[in-house]
């Protein structure tokens, strides 16, 4: 049975640099097909490199292709600006149409002589010094 080294005489860096052999063999003939000499450090560096390359390729694919438009929440600045301008224009046009509809309705009531039209009968408060100038 292997004895565990509790004292830590073998450093972590030395354990990372220990070399191992990975052999791929043919199961029928026991012939060695491929042999790799690896260390824990080389495996770690290799896997880290593959991970960074895959992340870089994925980011490049999203940034430089039209795939970015399928990401929820992604908004092109030009499209967003145009959307806001159109929204403001539609709001102002809606207000103008409402004012025009009120104007037409009131004009129709006046032309018909509708008695339900409430006239503004409040008296103006004119200052006395303006009255004396006339």
Word description of this protein:
This protein has 134 residues and is mainly alpha-helical. It folds into two domains: 11-74, no CATH class; 76-113. Helix content is 54%, strand content 11%. It is built from four helices and two strands; from the N terminus they run H-E-E-H-H-H. Strands 1-2 form a two-stranded antiparallel ribbon.
Q: Would you summarize the structure shown here?
A:
The chain crosses the membrane at residues 41-64. The chain has 134 residues and is mostly helical. It has two domains: 11-74, no CATH class; 76-113.
Write the layout of secondary structure elements.
Elements: H1 12-17, E1 19-25, E2 32-39, H2 40-64, H3 77-112, H4 128-133
Antiparallel strand pairs: 1-2
- What is the count of β-strands? 2
Biggest sheet layout: 2 strands, antiparallel
State the low-pLDDT regions, or none: none
How many discrete structural domains?
2
Oligomer: single chain
| Strand composition percent | 5-15%
The average pLDDT is 84
| Class by alpha and beta content | mainly alpha
Q: Strand order within the widest sheet?
A: 1-2
